[in-house]
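Tip: read the tokens left to right.
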């Protein structure tokens, strides 16, 4: 509990009967309530903004080492190529605290559309997304065609003219997605 405490120790020599008294006091402060944020899982290629709060000075380090622009800032913008553990030491007066945050980089799925075969106007074609990461969620969208099986790796639109078609592959476990 925060406050100033006084302690007295009285020592008596059992042989001589001599007495000595030692007094000391110390102050306990409320300490530090430092926090570090954000989310600990991000998709590859995403910049992460790390923010520490609750103290007056900060010092950031990481494993593997990251080249911070200024490791003494409370906020750090980092672009990571792999999972990294960050340590931030915060100081407030004579008290200090160390917090740790692990940022896990989840892979972005592959999205791929095979070239369209030659077709005649208003024809049903097969959209082939088999070069995409298998076993994930797929969503085909079109600007003007009617799509059939739009949530499968291969879809079948009826194309009657100029159109723009997109395939978005999403990993439902991580939320990482890639459109093509």
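Filled-in amino acids:
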């Amino acid at each position: 509990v925060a406050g100033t405490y006084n302690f007295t120790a009285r020592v008596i020599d059992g042989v001589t009967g001599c007495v000595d008294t030692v007094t000391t006091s110390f102050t306990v402060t409320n300490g530090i309530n430092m926090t570090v944020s954000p989310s600990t899982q991000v998709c590859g290629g995403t910049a992460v903004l790390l923010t520490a709060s609750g103290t007056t000075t900060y010092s950031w380090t990481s494993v593997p080492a990251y080249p911070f622009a200024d490791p003494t800032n409370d906020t750090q913008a980092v672009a990571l190529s792999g999972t990294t553990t960050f340590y931030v030491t915060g100081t407030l007066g004579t008290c200090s605290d160390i917090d740790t945050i692990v940022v896990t980089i989840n892979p972005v799925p592959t999205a791929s559309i095979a070239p369209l075969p030659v077709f005649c106007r208003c024809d049903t074609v097969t959209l082939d997304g088999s070069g995409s990461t298998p076993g994930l969620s797929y969503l085909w969208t079109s600007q003007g065609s009617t799509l059939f099986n739009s949530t499968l790796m291969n879809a079948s639109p009826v194309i009657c003219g100029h159109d723009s078609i997109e395939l978005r592959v999403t990993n439902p476990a991580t939320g990482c997605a890639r459109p093509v």
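The longest strand covers residues 95-106. The chain has no helices and 16 strands.
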